[in-house]
Amino acid sequence: MDTPQAIPLPSSDFGVEIPFVRHLGFVLTVFADGQSEIHYQPKPEHLNSHSVTHGGAVMTLLDVTMAMAARAGVNGLSVVTIEMKTSFMRPSHGTLTARGRLMHHTATLAFTEATVFDAHDKACAHATGTFKYIKRLPVGSKTVHPLNVSGDL
Predict the structure, then answer these.
(1) pTM (2 decimals)?
(2) Residue 73's pLDDT is what?
(3) What CA–CA distance (Å, rounded) separates 102 from 42?
(4) Position 151 confidence tier, pLDDT thresholds 50, 70, 90
(5) Strand partners, 78
(6) 142 in helix, strand or coil?
């Protein structure tokens, strides 16, 4: 496969527009050779009732980190999550760093893992995931795309 597209680092530009990721404020710091790293400073609205980062935000961080690791070995392809398994090991406090790696890939699938670390470099959560490589299709107001279908067709 080709080398990955160039993304100047650090960056909040993940090579595609992802509104939820922009909302969370993820910053990509590593994107090369099947490796990825993303920094995340949770905002108060991203916390749960125990004042720690909500598990859904942590899972999103893991998902995006694994997706970027999968993309870090290909050019011009996007990925979609096929499956993901997450284990929470401790509460996620403060600034978080997720590190992901591409463990194996075929022409159509990527097998990845990622771990979220807190500010003290303690592992908080770990995930494995399978991603499908796809060609990005055009989307817009007059285009119906299976991953972007609105109810007002």
Answers:
(1) 0.85
(2) 74
(3) 25
(4) very low
(5) 134
(6) coil
Taking the alpha carbons at both ends of the chain, their separation in whole angstroms is 37
Instruction: Enter the tokens of residue 123.
Output: 């592992």
Q: Does the pLDDT of residue 61 top 60, yes or no?
A: yes
38 or 149, greater pLDDT? 38
- Identify the pLDDT of residue 82: 97
Provide the token pair at 138: 């055009």
**DSSP designation for 137:** P
Q: Which residues of 71-96 are buried (b: 16+ CB within 10 A; e: fewer)?
A: bbbbeebbbeeeebebeeeeebbeeb
- Domains, the chain: 19-135 (3.10.129.10)
Chain centre to alpha carbon of residue 53: 16
Alpha-carbon gap, residue 143 to 149, rounded angstroms: 9
pLDDT above 50 (res 60): yes
Nearest to 132 by CA among 105, 113, 147, 110: 110
User: Which residue type occupies 134?
Assistant: I
